[in-house]
Amino acid sequence: MLYKEILPSETLQNFIKCFWIFQDTEKxxxxxxxxxxxxxxxxxxxxxxxxxxxxxxxxxxxxxVITKKGIKLIGxxxxxxxxxxxxxxxxxxxxxxSTPLPxxxxxxxxxxxxxxxxxxxxxxxxxxxxxxxxxKIDERKFKLFNILYQKEGCLEVSELSELIFWSSRQINRxxxxxxxxxxxxxxxxxxxxxxxxxxxxxxxxxxxxxxxQAHFIKEIKRHTGNTPKQLFNDKNxxxxxxxxIDKK
Length: 248
Known about the structure:
The protein is an alpha+beta fold. Helices cover 38% and strands 20% of the residues. It has ten helices and eight strands. The strands form two sheets. It has a six-stranded antiparallel beta sheet with strand order 1-2-7-4-5-8. The chain has a two-stranded antiparallel sheet with strand order 3-6. The longest helix is centred in the middle third of the chain and has 17 residues, at 116-132. 27% of the residues are buried.
């Protein structure tokens, strides 16, 4: 199995979590994707040709994905602010699903799929050029998402509102309209995602950002369909994030 990530340049860190590639040349693979607080632009490559390009929404529940033997997937894992400023669209209508994009989106069909490092470099340059043409971005939104991802969900809605001088009602309206769920759901997803690394190591006791063990199990099961112990026991068979967490 091939899995690799490339972190974005400093210019793109506000918008992109990473570029990634996945392929298994020996067998068809079924993976369960767990909610992580991001969304993805994904290329499907067959015989070194782009055959599909699609945009996912944010996952709030687990998603089973079948990848056929030899198929290469290349993705851009995007922070939520990218929906508005890179893709210029609301993604509430693709919550827990995906939508196809034209193969020539961002001229992606012209990039080299057999050289991941070169692919990332050329695409990053194109995105940086695209960002230079954007109008001024609301600084509150930059601050909002920087705090959310840095804190990994470990703060209250009211606390966040005070930090960025944006009312809780306005933030929730923005989240529901743009992404299809309230801020509290996003906080819970980030909090669960932050615990995946410990779960992958077999540490299934509640981290400090959960009230107690019962709360931890309830929230993990709500967003993954499994208890922490079940995630750990199946990490090498089903859960891509847990399987590859040490490769990052």
